[in-house]
Amino acid sequence: MAATSRHVSPMRLGTPEGHDFSFDSDNAPHTPSIVDRMPPEILVYIFQLVQWATGWQSYPSHTTPAWISFTWVCRRWRAVALSAPVLWTSIRNAGHWNNLRWLPVFLERAAGAPLDVDITLRANDRACAETLRTIQPYSFTIRCFRLCLDNPEEDAYRQLVTPLTEEMRNVEELTLLAFLPFGQIDAGTINASRDQFPRLTSLRLIGPHIPWSSSVYTGLRSLKINSTAHPPSPLEFF
Per the structure, how many domains does the chain have? Predict the structure, then answer.
């Protein structure tokens, strides 16, 4: 079959006075929209607002976090999002399988920027150990770390968390929690020192215990401990 081509004539428009003129859309100057002309830093701020409004995590019915889908409006938006490490530094609820899939993507795209990690995991699930192993090579970039283990064994924090915190020298806020069976308040002991966490200013513990003789308590601006099985002796503080 022979190829055919179709020529589209220029659009003809009329004026109220009855005069006709033609308009060729192919040769018309293109004026970028205000969205196309928006500075990258404004776009990044908008993306952050969407993050705060929709959350960072994926839901069971979603394969992609909602805010990431928002950046797919056009190629420019996508390029701006990929070039802004700050958008990838907040990691939430990485234990869900969809979030676990995105975890290495966030860690890589953060490009060494300080990380804020807030995750809740079932201590006996395969995803728990896998998540913590994935984060471990980036632990030196973590600024805020909040970990809650659901129903951990007594040595779970020592086995799972200690390897991760050994290189966490830049962490400023550290929260370690445990969802324990009714009546149980001890989630095991973690050995830590000020040399290990030189920048730590805020510490919160519910379940796991750091010995009261540890130097990690020196230099703190905020300390919250709930339901501890190891109450301190008054001599530790007076």
Answer: 2
